[in-house]
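Risk register update: the risk of archive-format incompatibility is retired. Evidence:
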Amino acid sequence: MDNRAPGRGIFRPCGFWLPAALAAWLALGAAVAGQARMPGDLNDDGFVDAADRLLMRHLLAENIGLSDVNAANADVNEDGVFRGVDGAWLLLLEPPYRGRLLACAPVDTISIAEADFLLLVAGLGELRPARYPAVRYSVGYRTLSPWGGAATATGLLTLPGGVSGTLPVVSYQHGTITDRAEAPSRPDSTEGLGAALIYTAAGGYAATAPDYLGLGGGLGRHPYLHADTEAAAGIDLLRAARTAAAGYGAALDGPLFLTGYSQGGHATMALHRELERHFGAEWPVTAAAPMAGPYDLSGTMLDYALSQDDYDPMLTVYVSDLLVMITDVYPFAPAVAEMFQPPYDAQMLDLFDGTHTSGEIAAALPSRLADLLLPEFAAAVKADPYHPVRVAAWLNDVYDWLPAAPLRMYHSAGDAVVPIGNAQVALARMTALGAGVELVVVSDTMGHGDAAIPCLIQSRLWFDEFLKR
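Archived output:
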């Protein structure tokens, strides 16, 4: 992912094409030629955006030919031939490749005895005994990029061993990670192990856990807290997992539950909103339990982060990751050098390249945002409610909507990384819109990390109540 604005190109939309200009544009993709096929990426630059849609219009009008574009990517619906329907898919309709299963490989099987022991040592004893072996699969699938084009992502599917037929499903959204190897689909991921233990081994649920874009086997930088792609990754993994599970005799057609902690709480809200707005018939939500999420990025989170002087250094990592996403995705956002003090401005993109853990990044950065951000930038964000960073954050707020399915937030009042004010703002707004949402305060004192266990336990037991009805 780079800082290029969607649709930035060198052509005017005229009736005639200049051959030299066409050659120059197509040459832009030469540096990334040979990468995995991406339906709709006609100029082969790694993105599907307005530039490709313009090329498609001229391809359909026969102003250019298949030899002038990436012919394989012109076959948008991947049926083996280029036809007018491919243009319709790219220009008018929901991409047909969304949720397409690309690969499904077994990761491992956690036995009942292993699962029971791990639940105990992880502090999840309240969910014991384990009842099923948990069979884990790594799933590759198609989803959307931040600009609406095709992207390849990976995620985890876990199934209870020895069980066939219709299963209840939990879509679990993981918390903040910065190293691709920590994503749920990877063999050594604690997030993936947790999903397998809590929902599949102890509960009998099928579970999916998207890695999100740019993590796991995904390419490019992860667009941290980008609500649209969090939601798309979750939806499209559900689709791909349904296809994969059918091959093992399981049907992911039972009650659907959504949950996640920290970034996963934000992603859960985004996923729930998108499912109810556009995919209710395909994936009706039974209940959702977002936990300790930064739902109010543009208000509560930015105000809190910029007003603190002594706080958890991980908050500095999370805010930095958010700012990198904003400058990556939004063409109106400030550049990295306009936000961060030297020498950190020159290091920031390398630190968030998907190969460093959060701890490694924290060690490379000052613990205080005041020592990391340019003072004039921080002051401008504080003072201007329409600052580009606030606008970009507002585009990724996830609390201003009316949920239909039961929604129960979990949070600790002692959380000093993601303050409970996020949940309080969401509760107030959703209640005002007429929703019967709830907020469960699991502790008055527990910090962000410590509160995860009681949140996970209480939310899983709440899901169980729906299966007893």
